[in-house]
Amino acid sequence: GKMAAVLERSFIEICGFERETLHRFREVTVDLGVSALPGGVKFPDSAGAFHYGESGKLLSVTSNRFIHWCTSGDSVQLLEQSLDTNLLNNAVRLRLSQCSVLPGGVHIQETLNNVVILVSTNQSVHRLLLPHPSRMYRSDLVTELHMQSVFTDVGKLSLQDAAHSAVIPGSLSPSTGTAWLSQSGEAHYALAAPAGGIVVLSLPPHGTQGSVSVVELKRSSMMRRFSGWMPTAIRGDQSPSDRALSLAVRELEEDCFIFALCQDHKLRMWSFTEQACVLEADMLDYMPACKGVKRNPGNGHRLRLAFSPNTGLCLCVYLAVPQRGQFTVLQLVAAGNQRYSLEHISSLFTTQETLVDFSLTPTDIWGVWVDESNAAVVKYINFEDNSAGQWNQVFVQPPPEEEVHIGADQDPRETYLEVLFSPLRFTASAIVKALQIFRRGSERISDLSWDSLKKEVTVAVETELQSSVTEFEFSQEDYRQLQVEFWSRFYACCLQYQESLSEPLGLTVSPNTHMACLLKKGFVSFLLPCFAVDHLYLSYDEYLFSEEETPLTDEPEVGRDVLQLVQCLRLVSDAVSGEMAYEMEKALEHLQSPERAAELVLENIDNVIEDIQNKLQDIRNPLAAMMVLLREMDLETDLEVGGDGHLTPGASVNTRISLSQLYGSSSAVSVVCQAVCHMTMTRALFCRDLLILQKLYLRFGDNVFLGGGSQLLQLQQDLIPRCSGLLSSYYLLKHISQSLASSVPMDIIPQTVVELFYQTVGRKLIISQMYSQQQQGSSLLLWTHSISNVVNLLAQLLWPSNPGFQFPECLMANCQYTQLQEYVRLIGPWCQVNIGSCRFMLGQCYLANGEGQKALQCFQEAATEVEKEDFLLRLTGSEDEDAASTPRLQYYNKVLRLLEDVGLPELVIQLASLAITEAASDINSQAALWTRIFKHHLDLGHNAEAYEALTQNPDCSMQLDCLRQLVVVLCERSQLQDLVQFSYVNLHDQVVGIIESRARSLDLLSHNYYELLYAFHINRHNYRKAGTVMFELGMRLGREVRTRLGLQKQVNCYLAALNCLRLIRPEYAWIVQPAAGATYERPGASPKRNSDGEFSSEPVKRQVDILELKDLEKEYILSRSRLTLAQHHPPSAAIAGSASPVEMVSLLVQTGLFDSALSVCQTFNLNLTSVFEGLTFKCIKLQFGGEETQNEAWSWLAANQLSSVVNTKESSATDEAWRLLSSYLELHPSSNGEHHRCVINKLLSHAVPLPDWLISSYKGVDAASLLRLYLNFDLLDAAAELVLEYIDALLGRGHQYFGIERPLSATSSSVWLPYTSIDQLLQTLNETQTNSSMYNKVRDKLADYHRLVEQTTKRRLATR
């Protein structure tokens, strides 16, 4: 595995435009009441930066943190930035009314508790005291992604107060200045007086009383002892030749030294404590051939200091001399006794004209210039060991191209938007400003998101276009031309603003992390070390053609060949026209062969082939050189970047937290990802040109430049395919690094999918990889070393031929479906790694877009790769359920769940059916798959298919579960026909069991499982079972459903049960009486314990009752009478359901349903007395009741069938009731007149006179009983009358009325009299005086009777 890429000494500028549309600068205005100075002096804009002392420490709250500023006129814009965390409220714009900020007029210093900003203007000085970050966050362990900036509370400072600001006294109008904070906390401002000399203003330490003090440093105060070596030309006279052009300050030991580079090219060093000049040196002494320079005032001279413990204090003086600017590096040497001298270290020359700014570090000078076309030029040089005086290149970003190339097949609007909103070319502020101009400044543009800004731009340009159109119709071509015209106008506007914002103002290099930044008017760009390969491709011609060696190889000869080869590539690159470059891009985008495209390009560059041929002659071993380049560009590695992504276990919590934030801020995200983008763009071009060159070699054949045929073969079969593959890979990386991300819910909105990946996944992997490789956390923050490492590792993570699959996973996790589809499309034809994983991802994209069938196709294609690919193995390995036997089956399970989540049952069925063929040997998996198929068929209403799947299931318990579900679902859907008609081979008993247990466990009225079971048995001609089911339902209805509806159903159930039994041969027409309520076996109940979990007592052996047809009929009649009762008297439905026959009779009698009551009595052989008593009572009530009682009576009378007797006169209800009673007595004779007796008893007990018909009918049945009844109720007269009549009857007068067949005679059989009763009567009559006549009558009649008996007896005896 290859590790870090080879770096060159050059750097590349990465702008790192952020996604934020605008930095929100808070305005703070300070007005000290001064008025503008006459003459309106204008200082140039300037910029600078301050790096925290601990910015290079991993465990510090200020790691990778700095403040930068730029000044313009009266304002200072300050911005605090960090590469590790996002700082909130980090931008402030300080407006100092009527003042101009001096060049070098901003100075920032930190103390233990504060960050102090000192600002000098031409009229005032200011001090801002801000809290130090380490004081704002007590703990070093800051875990938030966002932190407050030191500027958060800047609005709360009263900057007008004397503690913060002071007006410069007098008419001093300084032209430059510097400032410092002393050990004691005083703020000192050294200002260059226009008339020469330096004025130092001092503000007392913050929080102490005191006024501004002023010290003037003038040459007259130089100590006399120096006058011996002072040049007489300037001794004593106060000419402005000593006007300071550039000031710098350094505190050394107890003193503070102010260095002034003056207009007379001299460097003077003042001691602030001594208030004297302690050193003066002429800078022209270090300049060769300086004639003529002396007389020119050196207005462009600059001075910078750098201090390091090793070298002490170094000064660098830049002498701005036309055509030969020079940097002189000097070292300050203390000669003891307050005497100092300068030691010359190095002089460095530059041909560049306009120096904007330069920065001095203990080893290097970094300079930024602008050239004739106003573009930035940046270089740096090591001033210690540089014999050749060769500056190192820094490749600055060129401005966006002037013209946008629009292919014939491209839409102008789309193309322009793509260029404008690509992450590399324009800052949001340039686009916003252009938009304001385009809209003619009609409204302020608020803080828009990147997406909404895009929409606004589109609307603005299209609106402008529409308003310019006068004709209603024009051709497609004309419209296209118009589009191009308006979009290019908007584009030109953006270019103008981008150019203005890109104007370089300064340069800063962090002394701690060595991070170099270019400070521009509108943004900061970062300088990253350049990879050696990229360096070769980007090098400026004069450098490229003079280079002797390259770090890509240790062998000097191969190195020379590589350089020669790159020079040939430069010629190829220059020859490829924009048109051809576009064609080549298009070929890659449309997945055409890169080699074929290269051949087409080759045909179009014939004009330079001769030059290239001449160059090629210098390359001795072209294949070795190509291999070096290809090897260096190939990012394939067998190391898994970041391993498992966990930070090294050895790291402390603090370290882990710090690492978790390293390079995590939005600025760092932008920089890293744009660096990857630049690298891939550069290398894509490199590979493109190399491929064209390789094709050219092929065209020349083996004899010209290649040493024989074997080399040609190697070129053709190895190097060209490798180069072509690299080109495709880099094109892919270039594409994704510019591919905008769809919106994701994140704190920092990533702009591209690569930023999204770096933010969410990549950074953690990369940082942990870097940390594990080097244990010293300090070098982690060394910019030059670490940032290129991050970029390279990120590119490796994205490299499609590496085994890691984190990038597509991240896209999927963040719903970037379109981008993921495009990614898979682009790698499809040539990438042989993770093929199955890519198919799987594509399938998920299709699912998200609702294209299920395509998704299924992809999932099936991925299945073949499951065992081979890490991602798919991990995907299937995470299953918690009983793992299927093979990874492939686990994979199928995963996909099936995916399809289920999306709700595509048809596809689940399809895939599960396919998976079953794979699971031939695995019964468990088969069962699970069949269950799945069953479930989805059932859900879809495919009942037959669901049943089919159920029968296929090899696992009995699962089969039973499915069966249960089938029954329940079809019942709920009322698809009972299907349910009954399935054949249920080998499952018959289970179905019956399931339906029975459902029937018994559910509410009777809401579910019709009993009817279903009945239908099921009838369908199979099992009539006895059907009858049993209906009978059981009837029983339960009686118990549980106490309503008229329930009783109606009960009647129907018993009828159905009767029907069933009548269909069977008589000897088999019986059923087993179903058990009562709670004694059903609960399915799955413990045989030993009851429902409370207690051990149940010994099981009671229950007797089985057999019910025959007649028993059922009885039940039927009983239930019918219950229904009749409920129909006539609804409230009684609640009690009738479970009433026994006896209870039923009394209920019916109460309600007046005498027919039904009689019917029940007869069925169950019950005594009818209660019926007669009841009816008699009703008659009595009627007889004595009023009108209302009569009316009510008709309703119950109507319910009993009266034997129709033609009756002419209208009879009353009372008459009808009596009639009913008499008809019953007739219809239901009793053996001994029992019914009459009870009726009469009832009547007499209520003192109701007996109707004649009743007396006469009972006389015929049992006169003796009637007599006893009369006696019982003291009806003596009636009793006497009866005795008389009876005796008469015996004697032959009216015997037929008493049911006496033959009266007393010698021939007839014997007759008798109820003597006891008669004696009783006589006794009573005798006792009461009132009845004496009756007594006599009876006695006489008896005497007659006895006489006759005697005669008859005698006759009888005589006849014997």
Structure, explained:
Residues 799-1063 form the NUP160 middle TPR domain. It holds the Pfam family TPR_NUP160_120_M. Residues 556-756 form the NUP160 helical domain. The chain is of the alpha+beta class and 1360 residues long. Helix content is 47%, strand content 16%. The chain has 45 helices and 33 strands. The strands form eight sheets. Strands 25-26-27-28-1-31-30-29 form an eight-stranded mixed β-sheet. Strands 2-7-5-4-3 form a five-stranded mixed β-sheet, with no helix packed on it. A hairpin with a 5-residue loop joins strand 26 (364-370) and strand 27 (376-382). It is elongated, with a radius of gyration of 58 Å. Mean pLDDT is 83; it is low at 221-239 and 1077-1087.
Q: What key phrases describe this protein's structure?
A:
1360 residues, alpha+beta, eight-stranded mixed sheet, elongated, TPR_NUP160_M, transport
Oligomer: single chain
Average pLDDT confidence is 83
Distance between the termini: 150 Å
Helicity, as a percent range: 40-55%
- Rg estimate, integer Å: 58 Å
Count of helical regions: 45
Furnish the topology, listing elements before pairings.
Blueprint: E1 7-14, E2 26-30, E3 46-51, E4 65-72, E5 75-82, E6 86-88, E7 91-96, E8 101-110, E9 114-121, E10 124-131, H1 133-136, E11 146-148, E12 165-167, E13 177-181, E14 187-192, E15 198-203, E16 213-217, E17 244-252, E18 255-262, E19 266-271, E20 276-282, E21 302-308, E22 312-319, E23 325-336, E24 339-350, E25 354-360, E26 364-370, E27 376-382, E28 392-395, H2 412-420, H3 428-438, H4 450-468, H5 476-501, E29 504-509, E30 516-520, E31 524-531, H6 532-538, H7 541-544, H8 556-575, H9 578-589, H10 594-603, H11 606-616, H12 622-633, H13 653-661, H14 666-700, H15 709-738, H16 753-773, H17 777-780, H18 783-798, H19 806-813, H20 817-827, H21 835-848, H22 852-863, H23 870-877, H24 887-902, H25 905-918, H26 923-940, H27 943-952, H28 956-972, H29 976-981, H30 988-1001, H31 1009-1019, H32 1023-1040, H33 1044-1062, E32 1070-1072, E33 1106-1108, H34 1109-1128, H35 1133-1136, H36 1141-1151, H37 1154-1163, H38 1169-1184, H39 1187-1198, H40 1213-1227, H41 1234-1245, H42 1252-1272, H43 1276-1290, H44 1315-1327, H45 1332-1359
Parallel strand pairs: 1-28, 2-7, 6-11
Antiparallel strand pairs: 1-31, 3-4, 4-5, 5-7, 8-9, 9-10, 10-12, 13-14, 14-15, 15-16, 17-18, 18-19, 19-20, 21-22, 22-23, 23-24, 25-26, 26-27, 27-28, 29-30, 30-31, 32-33
